[in-house]
Amino acid sequence: MNNVIECIVTRRSVREFTEQAISYDDMMQMMEAALFAPSGMNLQTWHFSGVTNKALIKSLAAAIGREIRRADYDFYQPAALIIPSNIPSNPLGKDDNACAIENIMIAAHALGIGSVWINQLQGISFVPEIRSILSEMQVPTENEVYGIVALGYAKQKNIPAPERKGQYVIL
Fold first, then answer.
1. Domain count of the fold of the chain
2. To pair with 127 at 20 to 30 A between CA atoms, which of 69, 98, 119, 162?
3. 129 is in which domain, residue-wise?
4. Is 38 domain-assigned?
5. 168, 13, 139, 89 alpha-carbon torsion, rounded to 10°
């Protein structure tokens, strides 16, 4: 099997991380991979914030938890986050960021780092308490966050593949 395809089909969402930190170089490689994602009309209006500061990560998780009424919300306690954001006036910004998130997650897997897509910020990234923390994370004030990638080294290795559903046809 081709190495890229193997990386895609063996990637799993990781929801239990070790305490091991992620290196600056690995964070940079994952964000570089994000920049090479497709972008509608090649607008590339996105911004990426890499966060390894545990206190900031916990602070954002707690603020989101209060907003969505989940007191125990913690992003699965990752070592790092990558937060793509985009200008709300770009009608393709959400799609562009989804492509970037996929690139980040595949790059993470290629580096031996686990990842999981976090959706809870959709629609609440302009709530004042959350926006204040996002600003500390250098997310531009005008940008919306549609999803986050939580990153860390997986506690469990060789996570089994869930059943794949869907249909396809070749004509």
1. 1
2. 98
3. 3-152
4. yes
5. 20
